[in-house]
Design goal:
The structure is a homotetramer.
Chain A: H1 13-22, H2 34-47, E1 52-56, H3 59-70, E2 75-80, H4 84-87, H5 92-97, E3 101-105, H6 114-122, E4 133-140, H7 151-163, E5 167-172, H8 175-186, E6 202-206, E7 216-220, H9 226-235, H10 244-254, H11 258-278, E8 284-288, E9 293-298, H12 300-308, E10 314-315, E11 328-333, H13 340-354
Parallel strand pairs in A: 2-3, 2-4, 4-5, 5-6
Antiparallel strand pairs in A: 1-7, 6-7, 8-9, 9-11, 10-11
Helix pairs in contact in A: 1-10, 2-10, 3-9, 6-7, 8-11, 11-13
Amino acid sequence: MDFRSDNVASVAPEIMAAIAAANAGPAAGYGDDEISQRLEPAYSELFETDVRVFPVLTGTIANSLSAAVLSPPWGAIYAETNAHINQDECGGPEFFTGGAKILPLEGINGKIQAEDLQRAVDAGPKGFVHAAQPAALSLTQSSEAGSIYSVAEIAELSAIAHGANLKVHMDGARFANAVVALNEGIQSCSPADITWRAGVDVLSFGATKNGALGAEAIILFRTELADEMAFRHKRAGQLASKMRYISAQLEAYIKDGLWLRMAEHANRMCWALADGMGAFAGVRIDAFGGANELFVEFPGATVIALREQGFEFYDWPETAAAGPDKRCTIRLVTRHDTTPRDVNSIVAAVKKLAV
Amino acid sequence: MDFRSDNVASVAPEIMAAIAAANAGPAAGYGDDEISQRLEPAYSELFETDVRVFPVLTGTIANSLSAAVLSPPWGAIYAETNAHINQDECGGPEFFTGGAKILPLEGINGKIQAEDLQRAVDAGPKGFVHAAQPAALSLTQSSEAGSIYSVAEIAELSAIAHGANLKVHMDGARFANAVVALNEGIQSCSPADITWRAGVDVLSFGATKNGALGAEAIILFRTELADEMAFRHKRAGQLASKMRYISAQLEAYIKDGLWLRMAEHANRMCWALADGMGAFAGVRIDAFGGANELFVEFPGATVIALREQGFEFYDWPETAAAGPDKRCTIRLVTRHDTTPRDVNSIVAAVKKLAV
Amino acid sequence: MDFRSDNVASVAPEIMAAIAAANAGPAAGYGDDEISQRLEPAYSELFETDVRVFPVLTGTIANSLSAAVLSPPWGAIYAETNAHINQDECGGPEFFTGGAKILPLEGINGKIQAEDLQRAVDAGPKGFVHAAQPAALSLTQSSEAGSIYSVAEIAELSAIAHGANLKVHMDGARFANAVVALNEGIQSCSPADITWRAGVDVLSFGATKNGALGAEAIILFRTELADEMAFRHKRAGQLASKMRYISAQLEAYIKDGLWLRMAEHANRMCWALADGMGAFAGVRIDAFGGANELFVEFPGATVIALREQGFEFYDWPETAAAGPDKRCTIRLVTRHDTTPRDVNSIVAAVKKLAV
Amino acid sequence: MDFRSDNVASVAPEIMAAIAAANAGPAAGYGDDEISQRLEPAYSELFETDVRVFPVLTGTIANSLSAAVLSPPWGAIYAETNAHINQDECGGPEFFTGGAKILPLEGINGKIQAEDLQRAVDAGPKGFVHAAQPAALSLTQSSEAGSIYSVAEIAELSAIAHGANLKVHMDGARFANAVVALNEGIQSCSPADITWRAGVDVLSFGATKNGALGAEAIILFRTELADEMAFRHKRAGQLASKMRYISAQLEAYIKDGLWLRMAEHANRMCWALADGMGAFAGVRIDAFGGANELFVEFPGATVIALREQGFEFYDWPETAAAGPDKRCTIRLVTRHDTTPRDVNSIVAAVKKLAV
């Protein structure tokens, strides 16, 4: 049973059906087809404001192209130390911006703290020509640690950023899980509330981790960035000639709330994991923010035994190696297609090992 | 009826089936899945030599990343003036190489002539530090004009290139159509014969135009380039987290000769178009190389009338505008899913208009 | 005697004196010194309009940074085929722009023709996302062929460019020679007349070839580009910590008309060369535009003999090799420090050989 | 009296004389002149090994081009947090490498600690394609904090770096001061001992801060990097057409030990400052490593009073603002042309204020 990542998930039947439906005869290339043309109205409705939508293949390029329209080559982007944009894109954002810097801020539980951002911004070089000029703030929602920014937190961070003339990017690879968790656990909020109404300018809207085949959308709330993005998107090799098959995923994904239903299921499976495991001797929940990632610390022997029984997951950080006598944190990720049986199995296995 | 481009084609049923089959439960991300792991053996068998395969979304990025491993930032790449790598990637190759130049060579009927390449290479700057250093030759097979390089032509051009320390790239967005046309029309040759055996170092192997959903493969015949390519591929945002759905397309595409069957059909439809139209008064075949592109010159009034009857195609060059009294060349492209009825309809329409 | 290039010239005594004068005790770094602060007022006066001035070391970087503020990464710049910006910067403009293309236009006698520019601009992609977007026109004054654009020619070309939303750059590595030649030979015109009044937006103002030690100035007539340029200039490594020694050169260069006096002398020496040589049998003036470059065709044997007598010059194109029985064009360049004796010597030598 | 930076220094008479001497008639351009040709033999002798030398204008470009030959675009470079390469080049290294990352390591007293480097290297991604790949270590000698790495420290750090397949760069903007300080204070060592013999692969060899007009040399101890560097150097706009005037500075700088004599004087002035000030009430030496930078903490009122008396210096960090009631650290930098009177004046002033 596989708890490695939401990347291992299958494609949702509704999305497979949409791809199949898109396959009815010829259609214009490069996004001039009808499905692609429907995306911006649909996403504008979802976000309750006019948005521009650029479909792309991966989160890496969604983040990198977002960075490129938010920062000049001599700019800098604040991001949490463990954010994908800092650590997991192999320098993509630096490349696509033409040499901007990512300035890491060590967060608490994966989240940038307002005081830290304020301090960084206050100490910033502000026109001092020798230093890269802070140009943007990138927030990951939900974060790499599985935690979630509240609307108020995003609004506060955005206000600090805008006050210093920075633009705000949100890496929403797991945006759906965050929206669901916010509404379940903390507050009622719409996609608009936690993005542009809270100050977000550009969103990497993830679908791949949550049931799509391979589709992310760059959502521009600042629509004046679209002209520039069109060229960057093309020359980055993201203007698919058969765009309709990517667009079909992105359309089906948000139709009738599919994206939220899938995320809700994934989150619920993670709650069940957290509930089930928290009780056992020697097991410690390291972090669980209400979305679909759970970090649990076990005795190393337990970790080894779980793997021997066929459970799949990553040690966290990935480079850490569990030893039989050394406690170790693992990350468990649930998905739209994680089953209650998957959850029950691993909980039962842990229970047995904890005895 | 749609003769605009092979991009308007639907996805082949076999490829849709392969995608569906890939959707059976969780699988490792980022190309560590079983399907992706089978690609290199399969393509090595197809090309009768060890190759490294990097799946990507578009031809733009296949060409751009190929350029990046074949030319240093201070390099230059010879290409035919109308080649995609020169004119249709919005500067992608210049960007991904870090600022290399594309040096256009005006071809005959879309093909670079050996004498012209030889002359350019002889006049090249060879270490003269003020000039970009020719580093590669890029050949488009089949070419933008629908013509096809013979094995001997590619071998001759490659020999000139290698003799000057240039590497050789082939843009094979329509490689399948070229292979089929060569075997039908000119000579018996395998995929190996017209690539690495004739001196090609890196191939952009297209599948999207010929029945895939969105999948191209960068084929490295020089396998030592793979280490570098792995990082370039990732930071370009092309390492899909659910790579298996792209790999499944590329696997099905070459299985049991599907790619050649589809190209054969497309080419045959184009022969039928050429045969059908060539006979009429006032109609002149501008270019037809035996693959799936036909360039025909009509009286402007005919072009306008055809459009009014619902036939879709591009004027060529695309920026040219037909007027009622001005003859105009149009491009007709056939596909794996072009039907004999499509062909008969447009031929009949032209016949009527030619009277 | 050395006719290879204006690069071989010595530094003018007035400029050496200015450097020495700048060396009186400590001064603020990075352009905050008094001399550097005086540059913009002085050049604004020279050009009769407010300009922003960025001192740099070489013409390569002046052209490359100019390109970078005039074209986005997905842009393209029209330039004459033999222009430095196309052929002699080893891809610098492509690099500093982030991957823009230089689109060469074959000129007549080194000068872009209005009809050719108009045709290129009319056929341009204008928003077509697949192609690099023409963003600028670069004119070399005086040109690589030693010819000079008249005010009317520049105004016409600029009008075409601006009409298509392109900005206009002038590569003025030999700007002084052009100004002098225009005033002597063709028309009375000020530096303002042949730059911004004729539509030039950014000028690479050369001093090194005409008596400076190592100093060029990027002159921004569009002062709104200065903010961006400040950062590009710094990160390109051109913000010298002891900027005053570069600024001192640029200040002395234009003080009391020194730059024009030096160019006038250089041009006069070239007139003398042209006058002297034109008369001899077997000698043919290929090109002489009134500035400081003369292209003369000789019998190969003459070229070889001149070299044996110690005269230095380049075959043109540089890659051409003269043979004893093969006529060959050489380029002779005169400088602020070329003496009448230098000129008389080579004329006498040619006379003797021509007999 | 000016203690702001070594950048405010005048040019040494010997170097002015060398420039004047280079101005005797025409000479070949682009480094083909005799003086430039003598550089590599001279520096090879100085460093007791074959080196390749690339003269450049500024430290920014010396560091940026060094980075570009030491790291691929997908690479990363470890550097101390306050190192110029991290904080003061406005993203130049990120740009010239094509998007590499600088990974800051917080040093002690400006110096990277071996344990910290070892830990970083051990945790490094080593082929993990999602992360930028550590490719180099950059050490600043003397450091931004005025401290100096011993030979043993450099050897240890280099060994860790090389053990992990990283190359080693030294930013030697104040290399002369470091060499002198090492020999005076700590150990006898040659330029070779503290560079390539201790594992340094590439050195940014500064001269501008220590009496040159505008000249730094990139010294390649790994001579196989020279081919690549030649093109990067040119397209960066650093191949000066009148290279001889830069080369003349670099030649005179090391002739007969001039560079060391100047640095020795500068260091001695700094020792005098440190000795003089250390004794007064309320004054605290923050950092002095034996070279030419002194960091002293004063009562804010003292700092204000010193400025009113005409002494010039920077608060440190530069963004810190002294208040009358708030203690403040200032940086005092001595130079080859700092006089004992300068030193005595400020010491006397502090003495008076300390009473």
